[in-house]
Amino acid sequence: MLLLALDTSTSQASVALCDEHTLYGEYTWQIGNNHSVELLARVQRLLSGCGSSMQAVDGVAVATGPGSFNGVRVALAAAKALAFALQRPLVGVSTLELIAAQQWQWRGPVCSILEAGRSDLYAACYIFDEIDNNGEITYRVRQLSDYLLLTPQRLAGYLGEHHNVWVGVPGELQLPPFLFCGELSEASRQVLHAQLPGKSLFVSNLQATRHAFVLAQLALQRLHEGSIDDPMLLEPLYLRRPSITTSTRKQPLLGYKPHRSTNPGKTEREEGALRH
């Protein structure tokens, strides 16, 4: 089954074309803020370079976030449009699950992380179940935690509380450390390492680079199980609302009337967060 996989969740992007056994091509690059400009051009170049066409694609996989608000939307909108126009199945996979899946050889818990801004982290924890499929070993990602939006300090506390519950073995005193991977700042890395002494190992950001062929493999597992997404209903995985402000310079031209707060002690952004 030939699958096209798209991921523009952050300033790094990746697109791949593969089936169950063969990777035909992949582009992984720094896209910056040019998600809407570069994505489809790279897809067209990928298909052309592989001697294929959009009509030959049997399904579409897409990373659904969390990540950059604009970046996530670009890949998702493109994937939904392609699946709808071509009448092909669509599968959405969390970007955090994709990050974890690339560490399938690790036998302990994996904590996938993306910087969320405002001193917060997007995070989720996973572990791998080993499956013997007629002598061929495959791995299935199993999610341990909810999707999290926490500071590094609070994340370390949360992991410390759940460590034994998730991976503790009766009679075993030693717990396997968490393997942290993703796009992680040095400051966040230092906090997690300091607050989880002996319980944390880190994959470098380069080694944690997301590859769309892994996204395709996760999607193929779900397709074989009959699990697909409705292009009309699949939504980005946003763990916080985007910060949308109105330009004060343009307010007079737009006939803008100042918002009267029902609570003078709260900003408009704080009120929006409370309403949410």
Radius of gyration over alpha carbons? 21 Å
Q: What is the strand tally?
A: 11
- Name the helix and strand elements from N-terminus to C-terminus, one letter apiece: EEEHEHEHEEEEHEHEHH
Share of β-strand residues: 25-35%
Report the mean per-residue pLDDT as an integer.
89
Largest sheet: 6 strands, mixed
Q: Quote the distance from N terminus to C terminus.
A: 41 Å
Q: Identify the overall geometry.
A: globular
Structural class category: alpha/beta
The low-confidence parts are 250-276
Residues in helix, %: 25-40%
Number of helices: 7
Descriptive notes:
This protein has 276 residues and is an alpha/beta fold. It contains 7 helices and 11 strands. Helix 1 (35-49) packs across helix 2 (69-86) and helix 4 (152-167) crosses helix 5. It is globular and about 55 Å long.
Q: Which key terms come to mind for this protein?
A:
276 residues; alpha/beta; six-stranded mixed beta sheet; five-stranded mixed beta sheet; 7 helices; 11 strands; 32% helix; 26% strand; globular; disordered C terminus
Give the topology, please.
Elements: E1 3-7, E2 12-18, E3 23-30, H1 35-49, E4 59-63, H2 69-86, E5 90-93, H3 95-101, E6 110-117, E7 120-133, E8 136-143, E9 148-150, H4 152-167, E10 178-183, H5 186-195, E11 200-202, H6 212-224, H7 268-275
Helix pairs in contact: 1-2, 4-5
